[in-house]
Amino acid sequence: MSQPTTYSPSFKRPAEILRMRRRRARSEAGVFSGASAPGSADGPGQSSSSPAGVRSFSPGPLFNSQNRPGGGMKRRNPFANIENTFSPKKKLLIFNDGGKRAEAAGGSKTPTGKEGGEDGPTRGELPFGALLTEAETQERQNNTSKKRLSFSEDDSLFEEEEEEDVKSPLLKSPQSIAPASIAPPVCTEYPADWSLKTRLLFTSPLSLSWAEQPKAQEEAAGLSRHCRAQFAPVPHALQDPRSCSELRCAFQQSLAYWQHPSLPWLPLFPRINADRSFAGKSAPWAQDAALQRTLMREWSVSLSSLYNLLKSRLCPYFYLCSHQFTVLFRAAGLGGSSSVAAVISPTTRGLREAMKAEGIEFSLPLVEEKRKYKEQHSQEEEEQKEKEEGPCGRFENRSSCRPEDAEHLAGDGEDDASGEDSGFSWLKEMGVQDKIKKPDGISIQLCKEGPAVSLDHKPESVVCVEGSHAFTLINFLINWKGVAAAAGPQAGLPPTLLAPVGFRGATMQTLKSRSVNVQSQVGGTYQNISSLEITGPILPSSLHAVATLLRPAQKGNFSAALYTHAPTAVMNVRAAERPCPGGSVDLSGCGLRPISVQQLQRPSGLGKTALAHISMNNYSYTWKS
């Protein structure tokens, strides 16, 4: 069998071709020093059976005596293998740019009388002498008008030229796709959480020792900036957070909050189900009515001051923590509401009735949501029944109703007093009216009010008050005797007021923080993890401020476990029916960071749940509720 005059199809990568070209240029002088004359069949690397001017196995252009300085033929590539590509039984075709065909089986000649490959590859031929079958030939002829292959100037690489044709995005290689298009989305903020937290536990692979006991100057600067609502910028990239004084000052500033009343020997938060923490503590006002009146008078002044600040948009929000319920007052523009709003949780039937008596309009969002869901569900079931039964079935059901059933249905709308005796008339017919005790009117009334009473002290009892009724609610709380406990360890003690800004009669307090380095077992090894624990009445703005500082300090990698005060977990419920137009309410003077105001302005998407865990990985937030 004669030597096939084809090229190996395995050499098709431009990088390999360039590498071979560089290697060939370095060894050019030594390789062809003893080469034979042009046209000789005994040149190095070429068998005697190979036709003159043909290199069978080497990729790249043909170097003949005219363009080679040495005048010899290029030696055969010893790594080439065409055993799997050459078959003498198949008739293959080679195309050039002029549309000429050459039979490449064996050593047959072209119609012009020249041997295949005698003149070397010309412009327009397939690179590396690729062979085509007859089916591929027809397909190539159809696509000639759209795309053609052409060699570059050095004939080592080929280029694709497209004529008025846009490449389909499905044919693009993965490398041509921009990395930003397949990168995961980055969430730079977590949803607003209006619940009060009792404890935060931050963990990070980087050290959190920078949050330990600050220097006297740093603590003084942080508290001064908190009082004056001044916020210094924190560097985005921190090499050593422990040596950054601005970061430590900002951390102390984020821990401060304002409280009234302030009794150092009594824990005034939380107040619900906290009788054990008050037991055994000194309470001189418990048996002194004059002292109780003084405490309530000072508390009323502080509450009025807070509401005035809230209405003037100088205070974003505040909490009223009683022994039975907690009230959240929010300024207009926060939480998606266009007016001042208040959320009360949990409530009792007695509190709701007292609010109704004072003319305070309120709504029960969760109860209304459940009712709407039931109505929609029952309506869908009725429509489904009507479709199944058809109009005939409806008329049949109506005609089958008995007269006594109709009278019974009509009697349901009558008064309870007139229908009370008729409801037990069947006992007389049986003759057992004296043996069975009839329920009295109070028991019947309690049965009717059962659904309303069953909501007491449950998340579904959350109440929302909006607009001018919030001011009526303030007056109601000031004058209502039930706002303070009448008996027990908390008797006579007014509710606790918590706010992120100062108000009349308030005392500045700071959250307690503690940093600890621990080792956690990961697989078979132990990994050093730093933790930061913060305890106290943690307000939403304090949580956001601390998380904002941890972002650059921990290089975007930390996680936090959030412990929520259970009665306030439902305060993320939507209270506003009319959304607040964007940018219509100016809250620049409310005393919070602009980035915290932007977060609290958006409606919370948590519903009746609260955040339990947040995590930042590579500057992207994830959370669980």
Structure report:
The chain is α+β, with helices and mostly antiparallel strands and 625 residues long. It folds into three domains: 1-183, no CATH class; 197-255 and 511-573 and 608-624, no CATH class; 260-364 and 454-506, no CATH class. It contains 18 helices and 17 strands. It has helices at residues 14-26, 28-31, 134-142, 179-182, 216-228, 245-254, 275-278, 289-311, 349-357, 365-399, 403-411, 416-422, 425-430, 441-448, 450-453, 469-479, 540-553, 594-601; strands at residues 93-95, 101-103, 147-151, 158-162, 197-204, 256-260, 317-321, 326-330, 341-345, 463-466, 496-499, 507-510, 512-522, 525-538, 557-564, 613-617, 620-624. The strands form four sheets. Strands 10-9-8-7-11-6-12 form a seven-stranded antiparallel β-sheet. Strands 13-14-5-15-16-17 form a six-stranded antiparallel β-sheet, with helices on one face. β7 and β8 (326-330) form a beta hairpin. α5 crosses α6 (245-254) and α6 packs antiparallel against α17. The chain is extended and about 125 Å long.
